[in-house]
Amino acid sequence: MKELLEIIFNISMIVFVAGSMITLGLSLSVSQIIEPFKNIKLVFFSIVANFIVVPLFAFGLLWLLQVPEGVRIGLLLLAICGGAPFIPKIVEVAKGKVPGAIGLMLLLLLITIFFMPFAIPMIFPGVSESAWDISKSLIFTMLLPLILALFVKARFSDIAGRIHPVTEKLTNLAVLILLVAVLFLHTKTIIAHTSDLPIILLFFLGATAIGYCTGGKDRDARIILSVGTGLRNPPVAILVASQNFPSEPMAAMTPLLVIIIGLAILFPMAAKIGKRDLS
What we know:
mainly alpha, Na+/H+ antiporter like fold, 12 helices, 0% strand
């Protein structure tokens, strides 16, 4: 039974990640992708915040606090990946600039795909997979589905409109199956690590604060960078953790907990910000 659940977990994870990319690609236009790149300053500070400041913050946090190995791996993986697929939706709820959020998400995602394969062997010397093995996994599960979906959207918009609701429902179903598999496989592990939840929360809040400060005085930039920098990219971290650190279940559970904690905090905050700015 456990082996079957592990297979279901792995399949649902891949479907979730690839499905998220396809769903996003089917809803994007070229203008939405290009717009944020016109703001060179925002692009520069986004990259610095996500791939220099947040990793340094994570290393400092783990240096100060004693955490189990699985949690440490999960937080470090989160620290070096960005571009969560949830960013545009939360920014939309906050009445922010959704095209900017989409552009930031794609920028961070593309950098993550090519940054992680080189960062992981440096941070985790014991990882046996080569940079290409890690990169190949991310390219085939994220980049290629996204490119394919963007092509369909650009050339066959009618077909994209019909497919989009299907891929969205399939992705949501994959998330549900993933959560059920996690509960059956790792409930005891999660309960045993409840004392580590404050550290996970602190990491999320710290990364969110870094994004907020990076946004400066611009209201929309603060919203976009707070969400993008705070959430990181848990699906990517979970995928890499499950493939490279199977003996440490909390390595994959920690990013999953960040999703739960992050969305539980950000969605109500975004709704409050959106209502306040409308009044």
